[in-house]
Amino acid sequence: MSRNLIAILRGIKPDEALSISQALLEAGITAIEVPLNSPQPFDSIAAMVREFGSDALIGAGTVLSEKDVADVARAGGKLIVSPNCDAAVIGATKAASLQSFPGVFTATECFAALKAGADGLKIFPAAIMGPAGVSALKAVLPSSVPVYAVGGAGPDNFAQWRAAGADGFGIGTALYTPGLTAKEVGERARKLVLAYDEVMA
């Protein structure tokens, strides 16, 4: 089963990238984002792609420039996630045949992102907008566009976000923070997947 869950591994180091990725995959999470403000992020992405590239969608977050996109592509990443809506970054992403999930907050940003070629939209920070805001945006967005709530979404409120029309979630600290073992991340991931399946399946 493919789930609309992106694991955000901010702060992960290359020497733990494989064990953490394996724990996530075993729990049923098959999309992984390494934010570029993590230590040696391209080394982590390259290692993950070599080991799990055929089983998972692996890429980068906090992607802010066209150069970042090129570096992610060189490392083998297929997913580009940004905190903002930058048409040049989206264009470079699509030119490299990667998936583009820019961060948006307003209807203007949503439609600008889609015009630039975004594959999906990352509502960020979702906690500030709340489910009511997502519901209002979904009313005007094309129904085919996947909308992910990121920053404030988790097992305790998946149902509220789903009712508002969210199609998926980016999960950061609820899954991973620096210092957690692969076993601990796996336990968190399994609980998260159970909650997701209950609401979204």
Short description:
With 201 residues, this protein is of the alpha/beta class.
- End-to-end separation: 10 Å
Largest sheet at a glance? 9 strands, parallel
Q: Strand fraction band?
A: 15-25%
Judging by the overall fold, what is the CATH architecture? Alpha-Beta Barrel
Q: Supply the number of structural domains.
A: 1
- Tell me the Rg in angstroms: 16 Å
User: Unreliable segments (pLDDT under 50, ≥5 consecutive)?
Assistant: none
Q: CATH first level: which class?
A: Alpha Beta
By CATH, the topology is TIM Barrel
DSSP summary: helix tally: 8
Number of DSSP E strands:
9
Mean pLDDT, to the nearest integer, reads 97
Question: What portion of residues is helical?
Answer: 40-55%
The CATH fourth-level homologous superfamily: Aldolase class I
- In sequence order, what are the helices and strands, one letter per element? EHEHEHEHEEHEHEHEH
Oligomer: single chain
Set down the secondary structure blueprint.
Elements: E1 5-8, H1 14-27, E2 31-35, H2 41-52, E3 57-61, H3 66-75, E4 79-81, H4 87-95, E5 99-101, E6 103-104, H5 107-116, E7 121-123, H6 126-138, E8 147-150, H7 158-164, E9 168-171, H8 182-200
Organism: Pelagibacterium nitratireducens
Pathway: Carbohydrate acid metabolism
Pfam families: Aldolase
